[in-house]
Write a structure and sequence with these properties.
elongated
């Protein structure tokens, strides 16, 4: 079961890389919803805690990386989305 969880975690986590890379390169955050990423990051943080409490490494690792990527994108939204 851990192998299945690890594959699922890898796929969902890697899916965030293209958005993070594109946002970093272009600095275009116009298509990113601040509310959606904020709520998503909170949900991922709760999944991380849940995985920790269960002692499930696929849940912990995947959500730690996904949270980092989501917060990175959210940070870019806040930084690059500021109006002069």
């Amino acid at each position: 079961m851990d192998a299945l969880g690890a594959v699922a975690a890898l796929l969902t986590t890697v899916s965030f890389l293209p958005q993070a890379i594109k946002t970093c390169r272009t600095r275009d955050v116009s298509g990113i919803s601040l509310i959606m990423y904020s709520v998503f990051a909170l949900g991922v943080a709760l999944w991380l805690v849940y995985g920790w409490l269960l002692g499930s490494w696929p849940i912990v690792v995947a959500n730690a990386v996904t949270l980092w990527l989501a917060l990175w994108i959210l940070g870019m939204k806040l930084w690059f989305g500021r109006r002069p």
